[in-house]
Structure formats: structure tokens, C-alpha cells
Design brief:
A: 115 residues, mainly beta, B: 109 residues
């Protein structure tokens, strides 16, 4: 079975850092472009970042550009999101998602930024 | 900037047909996917590439496309279908950004 499991969320102070991980199983991560998507409490879905299979192509939403860094380790079948200079508006559930004809998502990890 | 537009809410009685629309100028050029999200849960893909249904999704869920509008249709709505529904497609810039509609709350009366 295809599975994506996010981890690394938690409570962090404004201005702090956090690194999210997404562990893939049931398929080879190296064959898929990957995304991070977030959802603030009571709000809709917001795309955050994209990384191609080889990491050569990376994109960020304007809201996180310069503060977040997406990366992957295909040998470890894992995807990462380094989040720095966190703001109140970054409070959200973060999902990793596999790009495919039928995209597959993880269950998400909650990040709470407090003052 | 380019947006996908959904109605904020749709209400239907059990057994009726619910139709949720998603409009965007670039939709004729790109496939759309639909997600169902229940409170406290991750989004679940119910339709991909405009009209394809993933395995395990009930046949009452279907999708269609016409011009700049894609439609999610739920035939014979059941109480368990009450949820938020989001359309998703590609951004207009040719980059692989994912663009989401604002979401539609489906209420089963």
C-alpha cells in the first residue's frame, strides 16, 4: 500500500524553526515529484512547495519563499520541509503529497506557531 | 491572479443529486482533481483528471468538464457525504503549482 507519513510538527515560538519529514512507503519516492500543502485552522488548502524527482526544479509559494526549504533524500525515501523564521500565519496542518495522475496525500502534521 | 471559484455551500436532501462546480479560465487546458475532507481528517481524492474515480470511491461520485467549469456530481447523496469539497488544478503560469478552489461545504439536510 502507498503510504506517506508526516512527522516533525509541534509547538514553536514565532521566529523559530522546525523541520518536517515525510516518509514514503509502498513506492519509490524517486519516481515522483512531490509537494507540500498546508491548511490553516478553519481555512482552505494552500499549496506550499514543489520539488522534482531529481531536486533540480523547486518552487515555493510567495508566502513562504525565502523562509522555507524543500528537500528530498531518495535513498531514504523521504521528503523534508525546513521552516525558518516562522510566523503566526504558518500555523497549519502540513501535508506531503505525491504528484501523480491520482495524487496521494499523507495524514498531515500540525505546526503551531505561538508568540 | 488566476483563481478557481467554487460556491461556498451546497445543500441537498438524502437521495438527491448534489452538483458542485469549480470555475477557472485555465481549466480547459489542465485536468482538475476533487478532494473530500471531513472534519479533523486529511483530504481524500474522490475524482482525478476531471472524471476518473480512484479505486474504493463509491460510484455515486462522478466528475465532468465543460469549457471553463468542472463539476463534481454526487448521485443519491448519503449522510456520510457531508463534508468540504475542494477542486485542484494547475496554475496558469505553466509551472507545476497546485491551485485550489476555496472549498464547498456540502450539507445533507
Amino acid at each position: 500500500d502507498v503510504q506517506l507519513v508526516e512527522s516533525g510538527g509541534g509547538l514553536v515560538q514565532r521566529g523559530g524553526s522546525l523541520r518536517l519529514s515525510c516518509a514514503a512507503s509502498g513506492f519509490s519516492l524517486s519516481s515522483h515529484n512531490m509537494n507540500w500543502v498546508r491548511q490553516a485552522p478553519g481555512k482552505g488548502l494552500e499549496w506550499v512547495s514543489y520539488i522534482s524527482t531529481s531536486s533540480k526544479t523547486i518552487y515555493y509559494a510567495d508566502s513562504v519563499k525565502g523562509r522555507f526549504t524543500i528537500s528530498r533524500d531518495n535513498a531514504k525515501n523521504s521528503l523534508y520541509l525546513q521552516m525558518d523564521s516562522l510566523r503566526d500565519g504558518d500555523t497549519a496542518v502540513y501535508y506531503c503529497a505525491r504528484e501523480a495522475h491520482a495524487p496521494h496525500w499523507g495524514q498531515g502534521t500540525l505546526v503551531t506557531v505561538s508568540s | 491572479s488566476y483563481e478557481l471559484t467554487q460556491p461556498p455551500s451546497v445543500s441537498v436532501s438524502p437521495g438527491q443529486t448534489a452538483r458542485i462546480t469549480c470555475s477557472g479560465d485555465e481549466l480547459p487546458k489542465h485536468y482538475a482533481n476533487w478532494y473530500q475532507q471531513k472534519p479533523g481528517q486529511a483530504p481524500v481524492l474522490v475524482i482525478y483528471e476531471d472524471s476518473e474515480r480512484p479505486s474504493g470511491i463509491p460510484e455515486r461520485f462522478s466528475g465532468s468538464s465543460s469549457g471553463a467549469t468542472v463539476t463534481l456530481t454526487i448521485s443519491g447523496v448519503q449522510a456520510e457525504d457531508e463534508a468540504d469539497y475542494y477542486c485542484q488544478s494547475a496554475d496558469s503560469t505553466g509551472t507545476p503549482y497546485w491551485l485550489f478552489g476555496g472549498g464547498t461545504k456540502l450539507t445533507v439536510l
